[in-house]
Amino acid sequence: MIGLFLSGTGNTKHCTELFLHAWDERACAVPIESPDAAKLAAAQDVILLAYPTQFSNIPYMIRDFIHKNAALWPGKHVFCLNTMGLFSGDGTGCAARLLKKYGAHILGGLQIPMPDSVCDSKLLKKSEDKNLELIQMANQKLLAAAAQIKRGAFPQEGLGLLDHMAGLFGQRLWFYSKTRGYCNRLKISDACIGCGLCANRCPMHNLILEQGKAKAGDRCTMCYRCISSCPRQAITLLGKEIVEQYRFERFEQFERPHLSIDKHPKNTIH
Ligand SMILES: Cc1cc2nc3c(=O)[nH]c(=O)nc-3n(C[C@H](O)[C@H](O)[C@H](O)COP(=O)(O)O)c2cc1C
Ligand code: SF4
Ligand code: SF4
Question: For residue 113, how far is its CA from the centre of ligand 1 (angstroms)?
Answer without folding.
Answer: 9
